[in-house]
Each structure stands twice: as structure tokens, then as C-alpha cells.
């Protein structure tokens, strides 16, 4: 049975993987999914007219989230050790928590995103960041 720290990182990996998949689903479903997820009308319209930038941005975000899921699994000992895990996992925590807490300052840079998007996505990032943080603290001696 994995330790609670490992369980936290496994849960965090699942959250990051689910977020990566949710981003891929937006690409598949198109503009309505971008609207539903709160990405903003500008992004949804760009998808509707066939611009490639929304797809690239979304693929990039999905890829980063997938890599983070793999690092969390590595830190939990589910897969083999990955390079720089002791640096990468705290950085992942910092990005999730930073994204959660910095949304009031990020909002002006993305005026098309809905208030619901900011509150829901920031809440999700806060939960994922705290789950990762617990795992990192609990397993720090092994990272």
C-alpha cells in the first residue's frame, strides 16, 4: 500500500491527466467546448474560423499537464525515477498554487474569459496544487 504522500501524488497525477484530457476534448469538440470551458469568445471564434493558434495553445497546455502527471507518478514511485524530480515537483506545486492565487492579476490579460472560468479554474488549480504540495512534503526525503 502506497504511503499517504504517494497517494497524494497519484491523485495529483490523475487530476493533471484529467485536465490534459479535458483540453484535448476541447480541440475535438471545437468552439462550443471552448465556450463551455470559459476560454473566451475570441478563442471560440478563432476555432470557428479555422485558425490554428487555439489548437496549438491547447495542445501545449495539454502536453504540459501530461508531463506533470508523469512527474507526479514518478515522485510517487509508480514509474521509474525521472530527472530532476526534486526540482520539478515543487515547481509544479508553485505553478498550480500561483495560478490559483494570481487570477485577479491575470484576468486583465485575458478579458474574454468568463468570471466563472476564473473562479472554477482557480479553485481546481488550488486543489491540485495543495494535493501535490502534500505529496511533495510527505515524500521530500525520497525525491
Summary of the model, kept short:
The protein is mainly alpha-helical and 143 residues long. The protein has one domain (4-142). Helices cover 77% and strands 0% of the residues.
Please describe what this structure looks like.
This protein is an all-alpha fold. It has one domain. Helices cover 77% and strands 0% of the residues. It contains seven helices and no strands. The model has no long low-confidence stretch (mean pLDDT 95).
Summary tags:
mainly alpha, 0% strand, 143 residues
Shape: elongated
- State the major sheet: none
**Can you count the beta strands?**
0
Distance between the termini: 19 Å
Q: What is the helix fraction of residues, given as a range? A: over 70%
Overall pLDDT: 95
Radius of gyration: 16 Å
Q: What percentage of the residues does DSSP assign to strands (E)?
A: under 5%
Q: SSE string, helix = H, strand = E?
A: HHHHHHH
Low-confidence segments: none
Structural class designation: mainly alpha
* Helical segment count: 7
* Total discrete domains: 1
Walk me through the topology.
Layout lengths: L3 H26 L1 H6 L4 H8 L4 H24 L8 H17 L1 H4 L8 H25 L4
Amino acid at each position: 500500500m502506497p504511503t499517504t504522500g504517494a497517494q497524494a501524488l497519484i491523485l495529483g497525477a490523475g487530476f493533471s491527466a484529467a485536465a490534459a484530457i479535458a483540453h484535448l476534448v476541447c480541440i475535438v469538440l471545437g468552439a462550443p467546448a471552448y465556450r463551455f470551458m470559459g476560454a473566451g469568445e475570441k478563442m471560440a471564434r478563432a476555432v470557428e474560423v479555422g485558425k490554428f493558434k487555439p489548437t496549438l495553445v491547447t495542445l501545449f497546455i495539454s502536453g504540459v499537464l501530461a508531463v506533470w502527471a508523469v512527474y507526479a507518478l514518478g515522485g510517487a514511485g509508480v514509474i521509474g525515477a525521472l530527472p530532476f524530480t526534486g526540482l520539478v515537483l515543487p515547481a509544479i506545486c508553485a505553478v498550480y498554487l500561483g495560478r490559483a492565487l494570481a487570477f485577479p492579476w491575470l484576468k486583465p490579460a485575458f478579458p474574454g474569459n468568463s468570471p466563472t472560468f476564473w473562479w472554477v479554474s482557480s479553485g481546481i488549480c488550488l486543489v491540485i496544487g495543495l494535493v501535490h504540495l502534500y505529496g511533495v512534503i510527505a515524500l521530500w526525503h525520497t525525491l
